[in-house]
Amino acid sequence: MVLKLFKRQKSPDVVVDEYGRRAVIDIRNITKVYQMGDVEVHALRGVNLRIYEGEFVSIMGPSGSGKSTLMYILGALDQPTSGEYYLDGVDVSKLDEKELANIRNKKIGFVFQSFNLLKRTTALRQVELPLMYGGVPGRSKRAREALEAVGLGKRLNHLPSELSGGQQQRVAIARAIVTEPAMILADEPTGNLDSRSGTEVMQIFQRMNKERGITTVFVTHDPWIARHTERVIMLRDGIVVADRKVANPLMAGETERPSEAEELEGVFQEVYYGGTKEEYN
Ligand SMILES: Nc1ncnc2c1ncn2[C@@H]1O[C@H](COP(=O)(O)OP(=O)(O)OP(=O)(O)O)[C@@H](O)[C@H]1O
Ligand SMILES: [Mg+2]
Of all helices (H) and strands (E), which one includes residue 241? Predict the structure, then answer.
């Protein structure tokens, strides 16, 4: 019995990168086919990807390129049609429903575009919920600390309808981090936010990544947001078409985004005059 307790689950060779970081995500030739009546939709057509502990990665690509499908598989919310997925060295395809639910609850924090908060539940309660499923003691204190970490220490008893969009998303982030996950998966978390709230939310993700070393995978359509991450993976038609390091990642809030007026000005000059600003000033 005692021996059994110490016997570690045999895992396949966990891949390590040049800095000695373990691959938290290791997917090999993953495909996903949705069956729609007679029609097969090939949402993923052979994706290979490794993401190492502590990385901050964004996934970009046109609408329909398979970003959300990939996130569902990464989050063990859905199984691929073929291919392998090792999450922290564990073969996800070999896990049963109960083990999957356990991994989702303990290892992964999810943040979605639409916040997914319960309407009639206070911020504090929302953040306590994942701890209740896990039967963790000291729930209230931990939930309060998570809300303080995202700057909502004074909004504990507010309902979602009593919070701004940015604040609601911060509640969702507090809910994702309260279980101290190894990884955060976020599908367009700034998609519904104005640029100021988007910056605040980005600041929190960056801080969680730096201070707590939480591996973060982040879907965005916005190249400006992607420049705040360390690595960009580009999907198109269900395959990875580019995978690059961001040369000098921006720190949220430190660099001003070009204003809408400036961007418009640039567009008008190009459309009407076909020249650059310097030529006309
Ligand atoms: N449950 C489903 N059943 C059938 N087809 C689906 C399903 N989910 C996604 N698809 C199809 O799979 C493809 C990839 O969809 P996915 O949602 O992953 O795209 P996406 O890159 O997240 O797009 P967006 O940027 O619009 O969110 C699309 O062609 C979509 O129509
Ligand atoms: Mg999507």
Answer: strand 239-245
